[in-house]
Amino acid sequence: MAGKFGRGKSEGLLSGLVQDAFHGHRGSTEELLRSQLYPEVPPKEFHPFLAKMRRILKSIASADMDFNQLEAFLTAQTKKQGGITSNQAAVISKFWKSRKIKIESFMNQSHDNELRGLSWRVDDESQSRHSSQIHTPVAIVELEFGNSGQESEFLCLELDEVKVNQTLKRFSEVEETISTLMEPH
Q1: Rounded average pLDDT over 109-137
Q2: Axis-axis angle for helices 43-63, 67-79 (nearest 10)
Q3: Is there a contact between 12 and 36 (Cβ–Cβ < 8 Å)?
Q4: Are residues 47 and 103 in the same domain?
Q5: Starting from the edge strand earliest in sequence, which strands make up the sheet with 137-146, in order?
Q6: Final residue in a domain of this structure, among 82, 109, 136
Q7: Residue 2 in this model has a pLDDT that exceeds 50
Q8: Quick one: three-class SS letters along 98-162?
Q9: Rg of the chain over all Cα atoms, to the nearest angstrom
Q10: Distance CA 78, CA 91 (A)
Q11: Residue 1 domain-assigned?
């Protein structure tokens, strides 16, 4: 499979992933990248390769790796089962080194409304349209959002037991999806 995903087209793939992930250009779809760069590779082989490259780029970007950390990280990726080839590591290294400042600049711009804080507590419902709901526990969740240098905005949520359970179920589904995506293929 390493021959199918050779050095020459990998830089184009990385550019497409950066356009999609960091610049917000959603035109670099998986099918477009595959058809333009790797038309000979079946989608079932291309998808795991693309996911792996996307994960690697996001790891490098989110960890804000310096060049020594980058080299150590890429070396580790070549040694793990299902990792990348040394040629792919060289392409990623060269690509990142030439575009690091530009990508970091776009990443900083994309943090428009980041979560600054989260607090929660459990209270008794003191007022309700239905008297049966008075004195039932509710979770109060307060989220603080904001841009750097600007005042925060707050979002306050009130969740009864059913909504708390639904939220926990959704978080479990998200956790399972992330675990599945992070498994080596």
Answers
A1: 69
A2: 150
A3: yes
A4: yes
A5: 114-124, 137-146, 153-159
A6: 109
A7: no
A8: HHHHHHHHHHHHCCCCEEEEEEEEEEECCCCCCHHHCCCEEEEEEEEEECCCCCCEEEEEEECHH
A9: 22
A10: 13
A11: no
148 and 163 assigned to the same domain: yes
Q: What is the dihedral of CA 79, 84, 86, 89, to 10 degrees?
A: -110
> What are the structure tokens assigned to 152, written together?
């925060």
Q: Examine the domain organization and report whether 55 and 84 are in the same domain.
A: yes
Instruction: Tell me the residue range of the domain where 85 lies.
Output: 7-109
Tokens of 87: 């040629």
User: According to DSSP H, which parts of 25-124 are helical?
Assistant: 30-37, 43-63, 67-79, 86-109
The DSSP code for 41 is S
Question: Per the structure, how many domains does the chain have?
Answer: 2
Provide the mean pLDDT of the chain. Answer: 76
Q: How far is CA 126 from CA 129, 131, 138, 155, 159, in A?
A: 10, 10, 10, 20, 14
Are 50 and 30 spatial neighbours (Cβ–Cβ below 8 Å)? yes
Domain end, chosen from 67, 86, 109, is at 109
Whether the model clears a pTM of 0.85, i.e. scores above it, the answer is no
- 150, 141 in Cβ contact below 8 A? no
CA dist 118 and 143 (Å) reads 5
What would the pLDDT profile of 122-131 be if each residue is shown by its tens digit?
887 655 555 5
How far is it, in rounded angstroms, from Cα 37 to Cα 9? Answer: 6
